[in-house]
Design a protein that fits this description.
two-stranded parallel sheet, 6 strands, globular, 4% strand
């Protein structure tokens, strides 16, 4: 790992002298020699379950290793979305190492999906449904957007700018993410399925999934349909792949970096979300760095992506296994 770190440092120094027009390839490996800090919330979840990160990693690794059908599904959906299957493996491993523990068998995910599909619940906050909330005048600018990714990205931005942590028309809105306030009716911070997707991410990706996989578009007015999409592995794998593809596209088109060879970076973005905003921030920082004659800043892995790169040889062996 020390050798990879040294190569990356030299690579960054070279970038400053040769600004590029096409996307700059980000090499494999970790930028950080040591794993970045793990958030306290992840540590609390792990401690509460009386387990360890290593135990959780080994459990999700075992699920993937022992299930050739699942690996076959991952390969197929990766091909459909023109991404390497290691990106999907990395996202799944990261989520189940640092988020919730994995189930022992893929079949359990199908059973859970059916149970939620039969449940009665709404996407709402304090009795106001998301459909009613979106009629507020603050969302007017989003009505001209087309495509699920652009529409829901706009709505999320409006939430952050106009409602998050603010008093609006006598109502104090939580200082929390849009997805946590309106799209997690059971408890905050909730994600589901083998990809631990949240409903808002799925809603953003539904057009791409429909166009690529031919699956029915999901709708915020049908919460059970949304939850089935993120919990049924035959559907959710497509949403995982779409989310990763969007991150790769955003960093190429906006930030000028090709991250296809670095699954630790795509795993980081899968974990953090908002790849378009993050790519734009990185692009702005590098424009300033160029003017100042400073080395360009590469996309950087967080604790979650660091693990994926650190375990890359072992994870890639899963895909070599027939």
């Amino acid at each position: 790992m020390a050798l990879r770190h040294s190569i990356l440092v030299l690579f960054i120094l070279c970038l400053a002298a040769t600004p590029t027009i096409a996307s700059t390839l980000v090499p494999p490996g970790n930028l950080n020699a040591e794993q970045p800090p793990i958030p306290g919330a992840s540590a609390r979840r792990t401690n509460a379950a009386d387990t360890t990160y290593q135990a959780k990693y080994e459990r999700v690794y075992r699920l993937l290793k022992d299930d050739p059908v699942l690996r076959g599904k991952i390969r197929q959906v990766a091909a459909d979305y023109d991404i390497a299957p290691i990106h999907i493996i990395g996202a799944i491993v990261g989520e189940h190492t640092y988020n919730v523990d994995v189930y022992d068998r893929l079949q359990t995910y199908y059973v859970k999906a059916v149970s939620y599909f039969r449940s009665q619940f709404t996407f709402s906050h304090r009795g106001e449904t998301i459909e009613t909330f979106l009629q507020r005048p603050e969302f007017e600018r989003c009505r001209e957007k087309t495509g699920s990714y652009q529409i829901w990205g706009c709505r999320e931005a409006v939430w952050d700018q106009s409602f998050r942590g603010r008093m609006v028309e006598g109502t104090r809105f939580p200082d929390d993410r849009f997805s946590a306030v309106f799209f997690q009716p059971f408890f905050a911070g909730q994600t589901f399925g083998i990809g631990q997707l949240n409903p808002l991410t799925a809603l953003q990706m539904t057009d791409l999934v429909h166009e690529t996989s031919g699956l029915e578009r999901i709708d915020h007015r049908n919460p059970r349909q949304v939850y089935r999409a993120i919990m049924d592995p035959d559907i959710s794998l497509a949403y995982i792949a779409a989310t990763l593809k969007k991150s790769i596209e955003a960093y190429s088109e906006i930030a000028g970096f090709d991250i296809r060879d670095n699954p630790g970076i795509t795993a980081t973005l899968y974990n953090l979300g908002n790849p378009t905003t993050r790519a734009a921030r990185l692009a702005a920082e590098n424009r300033l760095r160029r003017k100042q004659g400073r080395p360009l800043k590469l996309p950087e892995e967080n604790y979650y992506g660091w693990l994926v790169n650190d375990k890359l040889e072992q994870l890639e062996a899963l895909l070599a296994d027939s």
